[in-house]
Specification:
The structure is a homodimer. With about 140 residues, chain A is mostly helical. Chain A is built from 5 helices and 3 strands. The first copy, chain A, has a single domain, classed as Winged helix-like DNA-binding domain superfamily/Winged helix DNA-binding domain (Arc Repressor Mutant, subunit A), CATH 1.10.10. In chain A, strands 1-3-2 form a 3-stranded antiparallel beta sheet. Chain A binds a DNA duplex (20 and 20 nucleotides) through helix 4.
DNA sequence: CAGCATCCATCTAGATACTG
DNA sequence: CAGTATCTAGATGGATGCTG
């Protein structure tokens, strides 16, 4: 158990995740985190969670500023991890649907707290940034 | 005190975060997410949340395979966002402590769900990877 | 439409060397 | 100890052309 002093804020009572004990499990969890903690992964996950099944180009437009190359790559990686399912409809022109798997949906739920955190604390972050810039200037 | 509107469920199955409505807020939240959804940020955050205040080199050892350049950079970015506070003790040799701010602690809490998710689903991810590799081979 | 391939500019990460 | 400076290798983004 961690020996934190006070500061029990808004969310989550102390997070003692069970993996912290076993180093082997720790390592595994870490590699997962490393892959999941990615800007595009998170953004695509969010869009799919919010708007349901989407087509390739549709996702690109929804995310906004992602290159087609990164979109392809990230979707493949997400598919590889089992977060996303890819359905090809054999028609002309091609029609490919991407949707979240149960695993993907559950990850979306896990990230929910982070989105809420960002929404709630944006002004505090703004203040911190300004303060840091001021400190830097001196 | 933050003005949270509705959405009282911590890890809701469906995450309707309030920011999704206003495009201006959306954009702000997104830039925050983009900075926070970073491998090293997440890993450092976790170590500091678990072990409390640490020194520069100590964090490096705890995280394991981070270069000191990335350690410096990530700590600066986290400081800029107000997640981390940096305390310099004017002694020789130098002694610098890094600790989470309240904001940092709350973010750690928000990420708790993700760690739990990773710990819980590691075998499912392993299965998905194998299945994907098999599909690919054909 | 949904991609893969390629060239190129740039941004980032990592390794190494050096300093207050 | 806690960095900064520098160089290089790789990741990424954009533009463009091509295909089923």
């Amino acid at each position: 158990m961690s020996d934190r002093t006070a500061t029990e804020s808004l969310f989550a009572p102390t997070c003692d995740h069970p993996a912290a004990e076993d180093p082997a499990v720790e390592a595994l969890v870490r590699t997962i985190i490393e892959q999941v903690a990615d800007k595009w992964t998170l953004l695509i996950l969010e869009e799919l969670a919010e708007r349901g099944t989407m087509r390739f180009t549709e996702i690109g437009r929804a995310v906004g500023d992602i290159s087609q190359k990164m979109l392809t790559k990230t979707l493949r990686d997400m598919e590889r991890m089992g977060l996303v399912s890819r359905t090809v409809h054999p028609v002309v022109p091609p029609h490919v649907d991407y949707g979240l798997t149960d695993l993907g949906v559950s990850l979306g739920g896990a990230f929910c707290g982070v989105w809420l955190w960002a929404a709630e604390n944006r002004d505090r972050i703004e203040v911190a940034r300004t303060a840091f810039a001021a400190r830097e200037k001196r």
